[in-house]
Amino acid sequence: MLNISNKPSRFWQELKRRRVVHVITVYASASYVIIELLNNLAEPLNLPPRLLTIVIIVLAVGFPLVIVLSWLYELTSGSLERTRPIDEMPEGEKAKLPNAWKLATIVSFVVIIGLVVFNLASWERLVKPGSIPSLVVLPFGNFTGDEVPEYFVSGIHSSLIGDMGRIGGLRIISQTSSKVNKNRNLSIPQIASELDVSIVVEPTVICLGDTICIQVKLFSALPKETLIWVADYKVEKSQIQNLYSRITKQIADEVKIELTPGEERMLAESRTVNPDAYDAYLKGQFHWERLGKDDLDSALHYFKLAIELDPDWADPYADIALTLGTLRGFQYITGDEIYNDALNYLKKALELDPNTSNSHYVNAMFSVWTLGDWEKGEKEFQKTLELNPNDALCRIYYAHLLLILHRFDEAIQQANLALKLDPLKPLLLGLYGVVMNFTGNHNAALTQTKKALALDPENNFAFNMLKESYLATGDTLKWYELWKTGLWWTTETYLDSLDKIFKEQGYLAVINDRIRLNEEWYASGKTISFSGQAGRYLIIGDYDRAIDYFEKDYEVNQGMLSYISLETQKFPELKNNKRYIALLKKMNLPLPEAD
Predict the structure, then answer these.
(1) Which of 296, 417, 428, 569 is most buried per CB count within 10 Å?
(2) CA 447, 200, 241, 214 torsion: positive or negative?
(3) What is the DSSP string of 386-404?
(4) How far is the C-alpha of 370 from the C-alpha of 339, rounded, in Å?
(5) What pLDDT was estimated at residue 113?
(6) What is the pLDDT of residue 398?
(7) What gap in Å lies between CA 381 and CA 589, rounded to an integer?
(8) Which residues are 134's β-sheet partners?
(9) 326 occurs within a structural domain
(10) In the predicted model, what is the mean pLDDT of the chain?
(11) Last residue within a domain, chosen from 244, 272, 300
(12) Among 61, 95, 121, residue at a domain's last position
């Protein structure tokens, strides 16, 4: 027997004899490597944010289990045998450690030491090169002592985010999701956790007039709040756009992001703007975001004023084009000449500055939803993302184009990237729901459209997408309850009749009744959505009438006919409909795949 004189030494020898020490070493090394791999691959592979936490819990729970099993059993010659107590071993017999265990233990020690040394070597740097994948810019604080106009604070916030978004090595949370944290009194770690970011930028306006003073603080948010860097800036208002580039470049330096030559050139460009024109432009952006008829009219006024004051500035031209297109798309104004005016403004914007991402984004939107030029639309979306990889709306609308072209895997990828960039924007969440519904992930569509409506209960688009999500899952009762709340023009008597129709005949009878009303309105000269009416006819199975209305939309271009290529996802009977196929060919859209 082994002659061991004291209990601690005896216990240690028994741990080694039973290979517990070797198992702990190998298990710890493997766990360390798995965690490091997940840390580094989570962003590029778009892994679920909670996956790392789940893996750590599983590994922690497995640790004592592995120790117990290694104490009780040993693996020999490919079989699992119970380990004999030391008292049962013949005297003089020494347990032999297989070569495989020796090699595994040595490799594990080397891996652990290597990873520890690597992390210690970079410990002095709070931010390691390439280790900061995500960042949020908080709304500007006001330390001027005076009231700062909301349009100005919102505008410079948007401009700084837009400028920083041009850096491909960072994931920048978009303005809408960032603004949600205004006045919420959350700590920086809480904000970072909610938005899944690791860096928080806290900007503040110190003085405002002909000269603007701004302070910027950079925090590492996790695992605890740490101030990395702070800087103060003072510039003339005419130089404000150059200030954004300076701040962007310094933050990129602080988080050790290596800029590409193209990014270096963009940030080195000098951009001077008339101060009054800039002020008018910020007011225009402020009104545009509200999307109501009066606000869009005000936005148009201020963008045109910006052009009068600074006719060589490209951005207001692009925003006028977008505003005109929005007014026409919402049916606030009519006439094809509106599109022609918008395209002329857009052409001027691109002539003045061919490298502004906003102009290429607007061009992509017009190419797809007005001109039906899918190839040009894709090129313009790609150019926009080349200039600003963090443009969340560009990515979600690009996902819609990819849907239209039946490139579903690519559409899902772009939609998921957009969601990570702006997880709290109701419009984007609704658009995300469209992608999920058409690709069969109805539960994801429901989750995000519910979230959109919770964030903005008055958001009509999110409301409609939630209805569509319920219908896609077959929950016609929830669809109906939500649908009838949107009938702002109705009466109590009509609602009672609808309830009776739904209860006795089901949801198809309700849709039939809505079809009847729309036909009456259209016959009386009122405007209706042709594609919307076509969709109702598809649901009740009247494909000929559906195609009639799709063809009407093709003639007048209301802007929603692009999605016609996706109808076979829900109504496979259309695959053999000659009129449907003929319309797809006219529009140069992909034909249905053969079963």
Answers:
(1) 428
(2) positive
(3) HH-TT-HHHHHHHHHHHHH
(4) 8
(5) 65
(6) 97
(7) 18
(8) 171
(9) no
(10) 81
(11) 272
(12) 121
